[in-house]
Specification:
single chain, 111 residues, mainly beta, Aldehyde Oxidoreductase, domain 3, three-stranded antiparallel sheet, two-stranded antiparallel sheet, 2 helices, 9% helix, flat
Length: 111
């Protein structure tokens, strides 16, 4: 039987000290010139018809660079099991109606 050097062995975590001391750098800690932050606006309602989404006031807010709604996206469905048409039944953002609390309605990019 072959002996493995790594499989089944305890290995030292080279990042452990930085993580437990708070020195580890995560992507959320980084800031680059011109970097934008994204936020997904989610529905507070469990079932509702989307009549219109007026982004005009939000676009006037300092730092807001873009707002994307379903009207701005191609109508290409996706699903968890993407190879089966039976499960490809969702759009990236709600189209015409929301079906559950927390469904994605819009995306905002800002500084």
């Amino acid at each position: 039987m072959k002996t493995h050097r790594i499989i089944g062995k305890r290995l030292p975590r080279i990042d452990a000290k930085d993580k437990v001391t708070g020195k580890a750098l995560y992507t959320d800690d980084m800031s680059l010139p011109g970097m934008l932050c994204g936020l997904i606006l989610r529905s507070p309602l469990p079932h509702a018809k989307i009549i219109r989404i007026d982004t005009s006031k939000a676009l006037k807010v300092s730092g807001v660079k873009a707002i994307v709604t379903a009207e701005d996206t191609p109508k290409i469905k996706f699903g968890i099991i993407s190879r089966s048409p039976k499960y490809v039944d969702e759009y990236p953002l709600a189209v015409d109606r929301v079906r559950f609390i927390g469904e994605e309605v819009a995306a905002v990019a800002a500084t």
